Amino acid sequence: MMLRITDQIAIEEWELVEQFVRSSGPGGQNVNKVSSAVELRFEAERSPSLPEPVKRRLRRLAGRRWTKDGALVIQVQEERSQARNREVARERLAELIAKALVAPKRRIPTKVSKNQKRKRVEAKKQRAEVKEKRGWER
């Protein structure tokens, strides 16, 4: 079973490593007995599925979840069931990769028009005049 992101990009099962650990939080006695929390590890740096620009954007988006060896680690322990935590982790990975697929728009630098500069200076002069009239009479 593979994790499909788009029609062109799909993450193979061998690229994902899941580790199950005991969860904290709600669940009563179940928490002490069952390893329901999931730690999903995706070796993004070595993945043949992702183009290089997408990997760079994914690294930036991942932040602290990116390891030194180029893996993306997602931890989920919100649900009581292991299966649901697993689904949530995979959904988050898919969302993160989908965000990384979108290339940011290039910013076009603009200039402030002369008219806007003139209006700003006039407004400042008017405000200064108002404040000046507040003072004591000399």
Can you characterise this structure?
This protein has four helices and five strands, in the order βββαβαβαα. The protein starts with a strand and ends with a helix. Helix content is 41%, strand content 15%. The protein has helices spanning 30-33, 52-62, 82-101, 114-134; strands spanning 3-4, 10-11, 16-21, 37-42, 72-76. The chain has a three-stranded antiparallel beta sheet with strand order 3-4-5, with helices on one face. Strands 1-2 form a two-stranded antiparallel ribbon. It is elongated, with a radius of gyration of 27 Å.
Largest sheet descriptor: 3 strands, antiparallel
- Proportion of strand residues: 15-25%
Structural category is alpha+beta
Termini Cα gap: 86 Å
Helix content: 40-55%
Number of helices: 4
Q: What is the N-to-C order of secondary-structure elements (H for helix, E for strand)?
A: EEEHEHEHH
Cα-atom radius of gyration? 27 Å
Write down the overall mean pLDDT. Answer: 85
Order of adjacent strands in the largest pleated sheet: 3-4-5
Number of beta strands: 5
Give unreliable regions as ranges: none
Instruction: Give the overall silhouette.
Output: elongated
